[in-house]
Task: structure prediction
Amino acid sequence: MMQLSYFFLLAMLSGIATAAETANISPSTGLLQIFLGLIAVLMLMAFAAWFFKKIGPITSATKVSVKVVGGVSVGNREKIMVVEIADQWIVVGVTANQINTLSTMPKQEQLTVETSSTIPENQFSTWLKRTLDKRNQQM
Result:
């Protein structure tokens, strides 16, 4: 019981001491402290940004190159994608909640060359080119 009364007495005295200390601080001093605190935080953030830019991104020890070869959207949030890892292509199904392996196959060089040459030309660009050519011939 005695310890509890000492605790309450100490709490009351510390409250009185802090009230007396705050009474002596002028409003401009409080505003100056807030402004200096803001400047310190902004300088700390600028230093952290400079430091992280200087050290660069953190890379893992294993350097496995992962490249997305292609993909097709099959639904609102579902895709089928072909991912190249080392010398292997992996066909994966991607949803909002999970990724499933559908198939694996060896890397195929012919398909990448064929797909780049068989890309259909944009109809709008063809129409625009014809229109501009006709306009230039008339002038």
Summary: The helical segments are 2-24, 27-55, 109-117, 123-138. The chain has four helices and four strands. The chain has a mean pLDDT of 79.
